[in-house]
Amino acid sequence: MDWRDQVRKVVPYVPGEQPQGTGFIKLNTNENPYPPSPAVEKALAAVDADRFRLYPDPEAGVLIGALSERFGLPKDRFFVGAGSDDVLGMAFLTFFNGSLPVLFPDVTYSFYDVWADLFRIPYEQVPLDEHYEIQAAGYDRPCGGIVIANPNAPTGLAKSLSFIREMVENHPDVVVIVDEAYVDFGGESAVGLIETYDNLLVVQTFSKSRAMAGMRIGYAIGNPELIAAMQAVKYSYNSYTMNLPAQIAGAASLKDEAYFKEQVDRVVATRERAKAALAELGFQVLDSKTNFLFCTHPEVDAETIFAALRTKKIIVRHFSGERVKAFLRISIGTDEQMDTLFAALKEIIGDGR
Amino acid sequence: MDWRDQVRKVVPYVPGEQPQGTGFIKLNTNENPYPPSPAVEKALAAVDADRFRLYPDPEAGVLIGALSERFGLPKDRFFVGAGSDDVLGMAFLTFFNGSLPVLFPDVTYSFYDVWADLFRIPYEQVPLDEHYEIQAAGYDRPCGGIVIANPNAPTGLAKSLSFIREMVENHPDVVVIVDEAYVDFGGESAVGLIETYDNLLVVQTFSKSRAMAGMRIGYAIGNPELIAAMQAVKYSYNSYTMNLPAQIAGAASLKDEAYFKEQVDRVVATRERAKAALAELGFQVLDSKTNFLFCTHPEVDAETIFAALRTKKIIVRHFSGERVKAFLRISIGTDEQMDTLFAALKEIIGDGR
């Protein structure tokens, strides 16, 4: 026997590049181009460094309290973690322990199948239709659970609340996870349904609309029984997943809703402008409700464009999967960054034609 | 079918109380009584808040670089996580996937059996001897892995390096994890052995000796193959476990070794003084190489003392397990805090006798 025989074999998720140098225009990981609320910096500066010697509140009371206030829901509806990846991963581990396959789209956040593989959860990927839309029909069968990113990534397309309601009502016997990482940019949130359906878990993040990817804050909203089940699993893994700065920064962000709305509106306005500009360059652009655009050019290969942009220090995202390899996923930057992108694309497309 | 049938059933670890009010003398979770290095506060204050909008470096390069320098070992020997709980939990998930039981002491860090249960890992607890010492003989059999806390908790007793070498050499076919959460307070570290043995993983933390429990920083040291296996599992769960403040604060702490040594020496001096003071009050105190004392009083019940101290706003730790319920675990505070404790104990013991 060899210790290597016992090692868990996995094929990890590959995160987008995080270049450590400067001078890049970074449109590859759907970060917000604007900084978080000034209230965040202020709250962090006010922390007495002596508090770092103590364990943080395992219940993250300050952060949960601020979420409770923001959503007008009792505290026991919230679970927090180190980014929505931590929250989703823990939800998979908590709720998907049956023998029937968990269902999610074939084109969606590419961490879902990675978590399923990691935790040995059976799953099946339901194909999007030819317009890259999620189809209800494919989910109309017995399963171990359902995971829907809404809006979906990397397509950017959103489903209506009636679709989510249909999923949850048709599958009262399993947990339906709705991953709303991008919802603030134009989707319809299912948070209003959690008091009606005890099998619905909604997951959101501070990484996109709240411009706090560097802080790692995600949360789930659901009925107290779902949340308690996740808490038990969390307390069986790591009592203190949220460090003190994350708890304080997260709470501060939630208390500055005016700033939040303003930044989100700016990103949405730039997105709509970018959609038109890309169309003008000949791109086909899906109708995004997120802070990124998923687009393909009928004449110039996506990988060629990706590489050409990279030499100009503009980083976008390209996925190699069969159904998406013709596309680029472009995060929405500042107006200035997008103008630089359009100029670069004009050159590249012109050369490539 | 009900979604509840699929929920993972667990019995979580119960962390020590983290009172949110003031006025407590908190000697229950082995935190450092002194603040982290001033370099930590300075480094955090220098961070441009605009960086929070970006994902942190998934490789935690700044922190790994500082660890590499501190230990004089190449960077590929290090794995970092959100506290040593995150690191240990991930090590369990990565390395313990066989059918033979993983072995660890019956009295040890009470998270080991929780992780094993969470991940459905078979395990057996090997009894400490009558002096609460770890005995090599109990581990002399085929197994799925070995986990030794050295120094052990909550006993505080340390094993020699030759014992660790024996474990690692007798079990080349499985991974041996040495949990050195408390090693800086007087234990012998096994880090020097990792270049010799490819099945040895050493885990340490910033929560105790570096006074940074609130930041959640732990790390593992091992050969590159072990580290790569853990990285693959980590990247299959959460690409970014360490937020930006944790990476920066951790690196800053590692660069101020003079402060670190000074604070550790102070804690050790107080521990030795406390050991004598407790003995004078009639306690039997195990020979601690940590920042806590494990002690029992022949005349007054531990739970009685625990409760009496709690009414005086002094919080220590009491475990309910059969072999440890006669003991209290008392973290080392400042000299002043300890003097208050001794005075309180004198009253309680006097009353109880």
Task: Provide key terms for this protein.
Aspartate Aminotransferase, domain 1, homodimer, globular, 2 domains, 35% helix, alpha/beta, 353 residues, Aspartate Aminotransferase, domain 2
Describe this structure in words.
The structure is a homodimer of 353-residue chains. With 353 residues, chain A is of the alpha/beta class. Chain A folds into two domains: 3-35 and 258-352, Alpha-Beta Complex (Aspartate Aminotransferase, domain 1); 38-256, 3-Layer(aba) Sandwich (Aspartate Aminotransferase, domain 2), CATH 3.40.640. In chain A, 35% of the residues lie in helices and 13% in strands. In chain A, the strands form three sheets. A seven-stranded mixed sheet of chain A has the order 2-8-7-6-5-3-4, sandwiched between helices. The longest helix of chain A has 24 residues, at 257-280. The mean pLDDT of chain A is 96.
Strands side by side in the biggest sheet of chain A? 2-8-7-6-5-3-4
| Helical run tally of chain A | 10
Q: Largest interface here, residues on each chain?
A: A-B, 90 and 90 residues
- Average pLDDT of chain A, rounded to a whole number, is 96
CATH architectural designation of the largest domain in chain A: 3-Layer(aba) Sandwich
Gross geometry of chain A: globular
Distance between the termini of chain A: 58 Å
The topology string of helices and strands of chain A comes to EHHEHEHEEHEEEHHHEEHEEH
For the largest beta-sheet of chain A, the strand count, sense and barrel status come to: 7 strands, mixed
Radius of gyration of chain A: 21 Å
- Binned strand content of chain A: 5-15%
Helix content of chain A: 25-40%
CATH class of the largest domain in chain A: Alpha Beta
CATH H-level superfamily title of the largest domain in chain A: Type I PLP-dependent aspartate aminotransferase-like (Major domain)
Structural domains of chain A: how many: 2
Structural category of chain A: alpha/beta
